[in-house]
Amino acid sequence: MIGIFDSGVGGLTVIKPLIKYFKSDIIYLGDTARVPYGNKSKETVIKYSIENTKFLLSKGVDFIIVACNTASSLAIDTLRSIFNVPIYGVVESTAKVACQFDSIAVIGTKATIESNAYEKTIKMFNQNASVQQKACPLFVPLIEEGLIDDDITKLVAKRYLNGIQAQALVLGCTHYPLIKHIIKEIVPNAQIIDSGTSIINTIDKNMLKGSGKIEFYATDSPENFSKIGKLFLGENFNGVKLVDLEEL
Which of 114, 141, 211, 222 is 20 to 30 A away from residue 236, measured at CA? Predict the structure, then answer.
């Protein structure tokens, strides 16, 4: 069974291909009480990531996917040093797909971009790659509010993305595929690379097989979570349970 955590609803974009291709058994935690992670310190992101991982392990998962790009950038090494289970981060898997291109743009939260994790990881695989990075801090709050087709989101996206020229555009936040249609309109000539489809190329496929049973947990605002969950996953979304991590 797979444990997946994200700062909010963004990790649903990682779940979607796991359900579609493998019918994986999943425990998902969205830390909606503390979203976004992208404007918080490294120490805080590590603290939250440890608490999230402990919760998932208490549910009996066999391995963890850190669906949050900010947590993957800042906390993955600490998690691997503490917990004796396989832990996969979306930065590594997405960078492995992106490195086939020589001209790459990366968009993400402030913390992810400032960590420089994507550029460093991409250049591990392709030293000649040209990598430009852009922080888009308003995307996560807008998506968490469910404004995925709103004119405000479209205006913000144009403000952030106008002028980007690259062969590939990495969505360096798992929330961003929820507005992929808007992003594609603004950057039509770039190959869009997202974490959800990239992660399945990194993990042993035998670890992903299951019956398709999924449990969703959120630390706050289950109504908002449910609204987006139903919209994005359809019949595969079966409701969300509220959890208080401080009580564990």
Answer: 141
